[in-house]
Amino acid sequence: ALVAAFAALAAIVAIVVSVINAVTNAYNADAIAAESAETAAKNLGEAYNECKQEYEDMISAMENYKTARDGLDELTKGTEEYRKALKEANRQALELINQYGLIEGQDYTWEGDELVVKDEALDRVAREKEAEVDKAYSASQMASAEAKRLRAVSDQTDLRRSMRDDAGVGDGDQFWKGLADVTLGGWVGAVS
To answer: What is the tens place of the pLDDT at every residue in 25-36?
Structure first.
């Protein structure tokens, strides 16, 4: 019988604790929402920075390809210097093709030994990536604004509670602590 009483007590305590947690979460909903929004804003800010860096890396890779390709025009075909420059230009082109999923015939072609990525393909890929950066920036800014708004709501709630407590209307934290002590203490005393 004693074991059953302790099992019942444990079940009651678990229920009371879950109710207290639910009430505490409701009581702190503003602060919890603000904290969640701040975390989301931070994550979206980091995602924007990564997206922007990818865009800048892509632009740099495109410029490297164009520079390597333009360098071929200044060299004499058939020379060792030309072969090395052609190899570098083709390597740069292959990096772009692999990185951005360019399609043979549509986005690039072979002109003799030279792998040529079409300017239209580079422009399209750059516009698409720039649009991604713009979307990431917008999402980051909207999340940041929402986090600030929710933090202000939470701060206002805290201020109202503080003013209420200072005015002697009642201490919310003391109320919940007292409720837990009275409820749990009463049940523990009744069972024992």
So the answer is: 667 788 888 899
